[in-house]
Task: structure prediction
Amino acid sequence: MKLPTSTHFLSLLACSTASAYLITGDGVNCRDGPGTSFKALKTYQKGHDVSISCQTEGTEVNGNSIWDFTSDGCYVADYYVKTGSDDYVTDKCTSGPSPPPTCGAPKSNAATVDLIASFEGFVPNIYLDTNGDATVGYGHLCKKTRCAEVKYPIPLSVADGKKLLAEDMAIFEKCITEMTNDRVTLNANQYGAVVSWSFNIGCSAARGSSLIRRLNAGEKPSVVLPEELVKWINDNNGPLEGLRRRRKAEITLSQKATTEKALPPVC
Result:
C-alpha cells in the first residue's frame, strides 16, 4: 500500500474531509513519511491545531504505531495528537511512501549490566521481597510458580543471574528508545547510564523527566546527564546515600569514552 506524500496532498484533500485536533507535546516533528527516520519538515508546539486528512501505520512511538497525515502535507505521530483514541479516527491513507523498517531497542553493554547488578544485589535462591513477591537473582520477579519461566537452573550462578538481569532490562531499553527522538545521539555508555537510571526509577518517571525533555530538545548528553542524574537521589524522606552512589556510578559510566553507538538505533 502506498501512502501520500506532500505532492499528493492537494488531490487527496479534494476527496477527503480533514478533522482538527490539538498537539499534546512540545516540539513535535511533522515528517515527510510515517516514521522517525523520515526528514522533519516542520515542528508543532503544544496546543497547536492540526487537521488530519488520513492515517497510516508507521514506526511505533510510545506504543502507538499510527501516523497522521496533516493538512500541512506531512506526517506526525498520532501519539502526540489528541484524537481521543489510540485507533483510527479517519480514513486510511492510500498512496505515498512506505514506512521505514522498525529498529529494535539496542541491547545494553556488559558495563551497564555490571553497574545495575552491583546496586541490585544478588540472591541465587527464590525469596520473598518486601512486597511478599517471589523473587530471584538480581531482583527478577517470578511470573510463574517457582519461577518456572526462568530458563536457568536455580539456585542461579552469578553469570546466569546477570543473563537474566540483561533480559529483564529489555523493557527499560525499549521505553528509553521509544521516548527519545531522532535528535538524541547516545553512545553505548551514555545509553547504559540512562537505562540504569530508568531501571531504578521506572519508565513513567523517566518519560516525564527534564532529562528526557532536554535530550529530545537536542542538548548534548555530555552536559545533560551529569546535570540531571544527580537530581534523582531522594526518596520520600530526603537524599539516600545509596542513590547518590548509584547516580555517581551512572555519570562515571556515561563519561567513559567508547566508539560503540546506541541511539539512534541502527536497523
